[in-house]
Amino acid sequence: MPEGDTVHQAAARLHTALAGRRLTRFDLRVPRFATSDLTGHTVLDVTPRGKHLLTRIEGGYTLHSHLRMDGAWKLYAPGKRWTGGPAHQIRAILGTEERTAVGYRLPVLELLRTEDESRAVGHLGPDLLGPDWDPDTALAHLLREPTRPLGEALLDQRNLAGIGNVFKSELCFLLRATPWLPLGELPPGHLAALPALARKVLEANRERPVRNTTGRREQPLFVYGRAGRPCLRCGTRIRLADQGDGSRERPTYWCPVCQSGPAPAPAPRTVNRRS
């Protein structure tokens, strides 16, 4: 699942493969930009911004993409078979003489003028892995809605950019708070430390192929993906429920003993009535 750490890894791979090289193929398979052609232009850099990728190209262009749940950029050497998915899932092809970058299942793909990048990423809060990281600004953003559930606040990229569902669940566990606890009810020390903790966790996973928040090779995550299994601290079974703001529900994991705060309301039961 792409989050700030994996997006930064993808940007690094794309930058190494494409930056400073002239495009021999430029193919965007989305209706709005299908006729765009930057063949012959040089790729300047590939920069991550939260969960967004900005591929800057000579002439003042930026290709903006977002991976969301299952998008991916794959790199192939000349003559190698493309194995990232069926052809109808390809949304972008950026080719050079040495490598070809193929974007699969990209839900967001647009070609912008570089001077207009703020239209795509200007709403984002400080990037946890970026040069603009500012913990004070991130905390101030979070505190604008102290009654908002902690899990929702962490996922809101306008507060701080880069956290997804995995790190949301893991950070709530490390803070010993359920994802449904109103942000303002966190102990003051935990609240003040939240931005730095989030940065530390993502920074530790910036180069790792497999995420790890526990320090244990055999059990890399505390709660995410471990529903029904024993908590690594107390042995209680990890629970799973959906959390969202009404527009989108996300699977959320937590320990009901180690994490203080409210649990989600039980889902309504459907009663079959016979006539």
Automatic annotation (TrEMBL):
UniProt-recorded Gene Ontology molecular function terms: class I DNA-(apurinic or apyrimidinic site) endonuclease activity; damaged DNA binding; oxidized pyrimidine nucleobase lesion DNA N-glycosylase activity; zinc ion binding
PROSITE patterns: FPG_CAT (PS51068), ZF_FPG_1 (PS01242), ZF_FPG_2 (PS51066)
Coiled coil: none
Annotated Pfam families: Fapy_DNA_glyco
Keywords: DNA damage, DNA repair, DNA-binding, Glycosidase, Hydrolase, Lyase, Metal-binding, Multifunctional enzyme, Zinc, Zinc-finger
GO biological process: one example: base-excision repair
Catalytic activity reported: 2'-deoxyribonucleotide-(2'-deoxyribose 5'-phosphate)-2'-deoxyribonucleotide-DNA = a 3'-end 2'-deoxyribonucleotide-(2,3-dehydro-2,3-deoxyribose 5'-phosphate)-DNA + a 5'-end 5'-phospho-2'-deoxyribonucleoside-DNA + H(+)
Top-level EC class as recorded in UniProt: lyase
UniProt domain FPG-type: residue ranges: 222-260
Residues of the Formamidopyrimidine-DNA glycosylase catalytic domain: 2-79
EC number: 4.2.99.18
Recorded family membership: Belongs to the FPG family.
PANTHER family: ENDONUCLEASE 8
Protein name, per record: DNA-(apurinic or apyrimidinic site) lyase
